[in-house]
Write a structure and sequence with these properties.
This protein has 271 residues and is α+β, with helices and mostly antiparallel strands. The protein has two domains: 4-162, Immunoglobulin-like (Sandwich); 187-262. Helix content is 31%, strand content 27%. The chain contains six helices and ten strands. Strand 4 and strand 5 form a beta hairpin.
Length: 271
């Protein structure tokens, strides 16, 4: 069963009222404005997963170095959740009004989020074992003024990321080491490099060789112009790089489709 994706905008709506109450002073910038644009977080139905499911956590713009893992295991009447997080700084660094972190289980209907417990830091790490009666839920971590809050604040620092199969066509990611960027190289070239390596990972060299070769040629042309650049050549660099990105994306899309078609169907396997 594929996970359901729940837009976190509702969390911001829940939090606007509470965060406004916690903002001393008339000129404080509302904390919810520090949030990223509305994003999605995976909501999993754990009753349809294996007895123990591993989940990753990723940091938001408020705490980009934060990360972690969780194990969700079926237990009598619900699910046991074991969380370990790293890369967290003290909550007051975000805002002096916020003193600690809380783990939340957010049910599919958005109502009655469960406070699963306080995350007490030891250095930049924290662990927590908790329990929920929810079968379908998302997990987030927020900074809070105290541990016993009933609703999550707008200070969202981590959210769960479900582990997807490597060949899932619905997930598009480089799944490689981050590109090492510098201020002199145009962003268009980095995007083209990333598009090419994502296409290669998707099997474009095999399933969409012509489009992939075109993308490689365009990228090489962009790199060559940039290596011998003169001020008037920068527009040509960007144009070639953007054409390379578009060609690589075309190759990736074709490769993904053809790669799925080449796999034996379940009905064929059953015969």
């Amino acid at each position: 069963m594929k996970p359901i994706y729940l837009v976190l905008f509702f969390i911001c709506l829940i939090c606007i009222g509470t965060s406004a109450q916690n903002m001393p002073g008339e000129h404080r910038v509302p904390t919810f404005r520090l949030m990223e644009s509305p994003r999605s977080v995976a909501v999993e139905n754990y009753s349809q997963r294996s007895p123990e499911t591993e989940v990753d956590f990723a940091g938001t713009a408020l705490m980009p170095k934060a990360h972690g893992t969780a194990k969700v295991a079926s237990a009598r009447g619900g699910y046991k959740v074991q969380v370990h997080l790293e890369g967290l700084g003290p909550a007051p660094q975000l805002d002096p009004a916020y003193l600690t972190y809380v783990l939340w289980a957010i049910p599919l209907n958005h109502k009655s989020p469960q406070n699963m417990g306080e995350l007490v830091l030891e250095g930049d790490e924290t662990s927590l074992t908790s329990f929920t009666n929810f079968a379908t839920f998302a997990m987030i971590v927020t900074a809070e003024p105290y541990f016993a809050v009933k609703q999550p604040s707008a200070m969202l620092v981590l959210h769960n990321v479900l582990r997807r199969p490597a060949d899932d066509p619905n997930v598009l990611r480089a799944d490689l080491l981050p590109l090492q960027m510098d201020s002199k190289t145009p962003l268009d070239i980095y995007e083209a490099r990333n598009a090419v390596r994502i296409a290669r990972r998707a099997g474009a060299e095999r399933y969409a060789a012509e489009s992939f070769h075109k993308a490689l040629q365009l990228l090489q042309q962009a790199e060559s112009i940039f290596a011998h650049k003169h001020g008037q050549d920068i527009p040509d660099v960007k144009q070639k790089a953007r054409e390379a990105t578009e060609a690589a994306e075309d190759a990736r899309a074709v490769a993904t489709e053809r790669g799925q078609e080449s796999k034996p169907s379940k009905s064929a396997d059953a015969q």
